[in-house]
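task queued by scheduler; priority normal; single chain, no ligands, no partner chains; default sampling; output format set to structure tokens
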Amino acid sequence: MKETDISDKFTPEGWHTVTPRIVAQNPEELFTFLRQVFGATGNHQTDRPSIIMIGDSMIMISEAGIRKSMPAFLYVYVSDCDATYQRALKSGAGSLEEPVDTPYGDRRCMVEDDWGNVWQIASHDGWRNTERASKADSATTTKSNNVLTLES
């Protein structure tokens, strides 16, 4: 029996079964932020939800009004985590987590924009980052106020 992709039957061309949607006050300013930080493309629409693209992923953005503001928590892969983090800070985001190497091969950071959206930004570097993260974990033992703490 041949399996078929059921999304072919009911999703518009180019869409995935699940599409994130952000409802925000001043969505035009959010577009500007996303263009500056992630190189997002797309146009603001006033008569329907706007569609933007970040890389190969689609996000719907709507003006708050009929719906209350509804931020998102999104994990975004980029080619350079550190440069994207710096662009986000320069564009007004607050830092929640500075770039760090993870044991699963991502270099990752986290910011929050002015609309309450949290963007976890990552570059995947495979085992090279994993080895670097293991070394960093073992080297982050610090002394503070005569108390030995481990930072992770």
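post-processing summary
- The longest helix spans residues 126-139.
- The mean pLDDT is 84.
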